[in-house]
Design a protein that fits this description.
The complex is a heterodimer of chains A (about 450) and B (about 220).
Chain A lengths: L4 H53 L19 E7 L6 E5 L15 E7 L2 E9 L5 E8 H37 L1 H11 L19 H48 L3 H33 L7 E4 H18 L3 E6 L3 E5 L1 H18 L5 E9 L2 E8 L30 H11 L3 E6 L6 E7 L4 E2 L6
Parallel strand pairs in A: 7-9
Antiparallel strand pairs in A: 1-2, 1-5, 3-4, 4-5, 6-8, 8-13, 9-10, 10-12, 11-12
Chain B lengths: L1 E5 L3 H13 L3 E5 L2 H10 L4 E5 L7 H10 L6 E5 L4 H9 L4 E4 L4 H16 L6 E3 L2 E4 L4 E4 L2 E3 L3 H12 L4 E2 L1 H8 L10 H13 L4 E4 L3 E4 L3
Parallel strand pairs in B: 1-2, 1-3, 3-4, 4-5
Antiparallel strand pairs in B: 6-7, 7-8, 8-9, 10-12, 11-12
The chains are: A alpha+beta (about 450), B alpha/beta (about 220).
């Protein structure tokens, strides 16, 4: 309802104060009316007693109605004094304005309510001990109502009059109370999109602290993401520039080479550079797509054993060309829930990596096996390997190890790592074959679904 | 002129080496920072082309090492990093020039010539000694304003002699100007090239100092 906390606080506070004021007024009114009632009652009793005493003391015969000067008489009070007579009761004395007969509906003893002359009255009637005289006194209730309202109003008045001042004071107080919030807002408002350092966490009001801590955590994550992006872009640009430079240099060499053989060679090298760039761009795109994904897209039941067998078959020619022995031990009929295209990329990248770094005459072993509920895929070689301390850097984007004459862009293992993540698999780097080389182990947890025999 | 090229990328290194050779440079190509440091400790290079992202010892560390040892050989940094911060860091680490990949071979060659010229303390891009004139960029030599046709290796020897005109240059130094053209340098290659140069330029232009080397007079 209210978009402003300040307005909301102010309104609610003022409404509360108003409610308290009205309640006070109401209680005051009730209390006052009770007290005034008691006062009136005791007054009436007092009047009646005095009148009875006067009637008794006076001459009993022929008490005449005196000629009261109405100016001296309170019109809000009326009374009658009666005497019992065997021939009919006689009104000895009455106030001006009082009826000449006993008002109808008024009890002979005690309090009664009377409607007379356009106003409400309270009456009290009493008789003396000898039952010779009896009297009636009445007070105008209009008076009582006026008094009660006055008392209630007096109680209410301070509240109502102070309300405008209170509003101003409260507005100031609330505004002061919200100062930390405004400070936070000012800090956030002046930030450029690049500024993602944490907000100060000291001297924070308890109410703001969780908000600021949450924002700081968010800032941290966003900064991390941005930093990754920035580095990725920078690394990608760097990686693309080098093959581009190579192509340009080779083409310029071809342009000015004196003989056909050199021209041919340089163009061949430029083409090789173009291939390398194509490969690099493809890998960058794959990685960019994978980085953005929250979960592996297109998850389906995959016949992993067949897929791995197939991928290994594709790489066999490369192994032969490089003079390497590529062996496989693949447990048949292992199934997995995953994305077949990505899994193929994963196996191919792992093998490609091993085949690249293992020198001629070396061995590469690809194995796939079910271990309890897990599926374990492993590619091990007896190549130069990677020092244990360096293994944590494997799979970092564009990280290449100090090996010359190996062409690669350092993205293969990043892709493997990301695909493993998307499949919830654990990636582990260890020793390769016979305590030499590198062994890459991928464990797909609780995934082993063996195809039933009839299907296999 | 002898150039040390330090670049770990096979294709690029190969292209630069070939391109610079066409530009008349004699290029030694090394693929990592440590080998480059070793080579710089023992060999004389007119200029160094240095990639920054190198295995074993990165380019900037190598550059700082080199300057720390008081070596003044001009260094042109060749890198894919193109931000101002990178350039400033490169130049402040002791680089004399900075080129971002991909480079134009002509520009690279021109910058190398300019670096060499400045290192030699020469004002004119053309070298002059007596009636001889040599244009390192065009790879051409003149005698009395007449163009003399010379093959690349003879030009390299002549360039070295002219750059050091008035000083005796040893046979070894001249041989080093020939390294990189072929796999090996024949033991009498320098003598053969000097012989050809004398025939084309005039017998009295290059003087032999027995046991010391060769000298080309300044005037």
């Amino acid at each position: 309802m209210f978009r402003s906390i300040q307005l909301r606080l102010l309104t609610l506070t003022l409404l509360s104060i108003l409610a308290a004021a009205l309640l006070t007024g109401w209680f005051a009114y009730r209390e006052a009316s009770h007290e005034v009632d008691e006062l009136i009652n005791s007054q009436l009793v007092q009047y009646a007693r005095i009148m009875l005493a006067l009637a008794h003391a006076g001459d009993n015969d022929e008490v005449k109605s005196p000629n009261f000067d109405e100016h001296y008489f309170n019109p809000h009070v009326i009374f009658q004094i009666w005497e019992h007579r065997p021939d009919g009761d006689k009104l000895l004395l009455r106030s001006p304005g009082a009826p000449r007969a006993w008002p109808p509906g008024v009890a002979m003893e005690g309090y009664s309510a009377l409607r007379f002359g356009g106003t409400d009255w309270r009456t009290f009637a009493a008789a003396d001990d000898q039952n010779q005289h009896y009297v009636m006194a009445a007070l105008d209730l209009h008076l009582r109502n006026e008094l009660t309202t006055d008392i209630a109003w007096v109680n209410l008045k301070p509240y109502l009059f102070s309300l405008p001042i209170l509003s101003l004071v409260l507005a100031w107080v609330i505004s002061r109370g919200l100062a930390p919030l405004r400070g936070l807002e000012a800090d956030l408002a002046t930030r450029s999109p690049e500024r993602l350092d944490a907000l100060p966490e000291t001297d924070l009001p308890r109410e703001l602290r969780p908000l600021v801590l949450t924002m700081n955590r968010l800032f941290g994550r966003v900064a991390q993401v941005l930093e990754n992006e920035r580095r990725f872009t920078s690394d990608a640009a760097h990686e693309l520039r080098t093959p581009l430079a190579a192509m340009k240099a080779q083409l310029q060499v071809a342009q000015r080479a004196p003989d056909g053989r050199e021209v041919h060679g340089a163009i061949g090298k430029a083409l090789h550079g173009a291939d390398r760039m194509t490969h690099l761009v493809a890998e960058l795109l794959t990685l960019a797509r994978l980085e953005g994904a929250q979960a592996a897209p297109g998850m389906t039941a995959v016949a992993l054993s067949d897929l791995v067998e197939e991928a290994a078959g594709e790489m066999r020619a490369v192994a032969v060309e490089r003079g390497l022995d590529l062996a496989t031990t693949i447990e048949p009929a292992l199934n997995l829930n995953g994305n077949p295209d990505l899994l193929r990329v994963l196996v191919r990248n792992l093998l490609d990596n091993a085949l690249r770094y293992v020198p001629g005459g070396g061995h590469v072993l690809l194995s796939l096996a079910g271990q309890d509920a897990d599926i374990v895929l492993r590619v091990a070689d007896d190549g130069p390997g990677v020092a244990a301390a360096e293994r944590s850097k494997l799979g970092l984007r564009f990280h290449r190890f100090e090996q010359q004459a190996v062409e690669g862009v350092g993205l293969g293992l990043s892709i493997v790592r990301r695909i493993a993540e998307l499949h919830g698999a654990e990636l582990e780097f260890g020793d390769g074959l016979n305590g030499k080389g590198l062994g890459v182990t991928l464990r797909f947890p609780s995934q082993a679904v063996r195809t039933p025999r009839q299907v296999a | 002129m002898r150039v040390l090229l330090v670049e770990d990328d096979e294709l690029l290194g190969d292209g630069l080496q070939a391109g610079l050779r066409h530009g008349g440079f004699n290029v030694d190509w090394l693929r990592d920072g440590l080998s480059a440091r070793t080579a710089l400790a023992s060999e004389d290079y007119a200029v160094v082309v240095l990639d920054l992202g190198l295995p074993r010892l990165d380019g900037l560390s190598l550059l700082r090492d080199l300057r720390g040892q008081g070596k003044t050989v001009p260094v042109l940094v060749l890198t894919a990093r193109d931000t101002t911060v990178d350039k400033v860091r490169g130049l402040d680490s002791g680089a004399d020039d900075y080129l971002v990949k991909p480079v134009d071979l002509d520009e690279l060659a021109a910058r190398l010539r300019s670096l060499i010229r400045r290192a030699d303390g020469q004002a004119s891009p053309r070298l002059q000694a007596g009636k001889l004139e040599f244009d390192p960029a065009a790879r051409r030599a003149w005698v009395d304003g007449r163009v003399i046709d010379l093959p690349a290796k003879e030009l390299a020897i002549l360039e070295m002699l002219m750059r050091n005109a008035g000083k005796v240059i040893s046979k070894g130094q001249l041989e080093s100007a020939l390294y990189g053209w072929d796999e090996g340098v024949e033991s009498n290659a320098v003598e053969v090239h000097i012989h050809h140069l004398r025939r084309k330029l005039g017998a009295d232009i290059i003087r032999t100092h027995r046991g010391l080397g060769y000298l080309l007079e300044k005037n």
